[in-house]
Amino acid sequence: MMDSMGKKKPRPRRSFTPEFKAEIVELCRRGDRSVGQVAKDFDLTETAVRQWVRQAEVDEGHRDGLTSSEREELAALRRENRRLREDVDVLKRATAFFVRETR
After folding, report:
1. pLDDT tens column, 38-51
2. Number of CB atoms found within 10 A of residue 22's CB
3. Three-class SS string for 33-70?
4. CA gap 76, 34 in Å, rounded
5. Is the pLDDT of residue 26 over 70?
């Protein structure tokens, strides 16, 4: 994937099922092939595969960090927090408008 200037084009973002990720992690753990070889065989980035292996270790309690469910909850709370901040901002502007109009 090289463009005319010799630079690599960014790979389009893909999503994978938890089952697929678990299968890839299991292949890496068997030890038949290196993480790099598993990534190459399935047209994945080595970085992504290493992250999946690391996340599986966290989820299983073998490594410190946020579990997958904790990450999902954190992301949902951040989205809700952002929406609530936007709501508060709109209400502040509406309040300021009505204060000016009623004078």
Report:
1. 999 999 999 999 99
2. 13
3. CCHHHHHHHCCCCHHHHHHHHHHHHHHCCCCCCCCHHH
4. 35
5. yes
C-alpha distances out from residue 9 to 15, 26, 41, 99, Å: 18, 30, 20, 54
pLDDT at 60: 95
Question: Among all chains, which residue has been given the structure tokens 């084009």?
Answer: 9
Coil, helix or strand at residue 94: helix
Which H or E run includes 18?
Answer: helix 18-30
pLDDT tens readout for residues 75-90:
999 999 999 999 999 9
> What is the C-alpha to C-alpha distance for residues 101 and 64, in angstroms, rounded to an integer?
56
List, in sequence order, every residue forming a beta bridge with 2; answer none if it has no partner: 8
**Burial letters for 50-88: b for 16+ Cβ neighbours within 10 Å, e otherwise?**
eebbebbebbeeeeeeeeeeeeeeeeeeeeeeeeeeeee
Rounded Cα distance, 67 and 60, in Å: 8
Distance, in Å, from the CA atom of 11 to the CA atom of 38, rounded to the nearest integer, reads 18
